[in-house]
Amino acid sequence: MLQHFSFKPMFDNTQLPGWTFSFFFRNTRYTGDYLPEGVIVWTGETPPEEDNLKKMIHELMIFHVYD
Q1: pLDDT of amino acid 53
Q2: In total, how many domains does the chain have?
Q3: What share of the chain is helix, strand, coil (3-state, %, to 5)?
Q4: What's the rounded Cα separation, in Å, for the pair 67 and 58?
Q5: Whole domain around residue 24: which residue ranges?
Q6: What predicted TM-score, i.e. pTM, was given to this entire model?
Q7: Pairing verdict, β 40-42 and 19-25
Q8: How many angstroms separate the CA atoms of 10 and 18, rounded?
Q9: FRET pair for 26, CA 20 to 30 Å: which of 4, 18, 32, 47?
């Protein structure tokens, strides 16, 4: 389970899409960029169970950003 998930816009001009995010998984902090087309780019270490985590991140972003 993801813990302490947070995100913020990449750019000061919020009209430009793109977000940075971070979270903890198994006591390790991971960071990445969430691009407008739904692509996730890890900016640090790639987490284990990457496919499952990507699904969770997509769900969170859809809920918080697009809803």
Answers
A1: 95
A2: 1
A3: 25, 35, 40
A4: 12
A5: 3-66
A6: 0.86
A7: unpaired
A8: 5
A9: 18
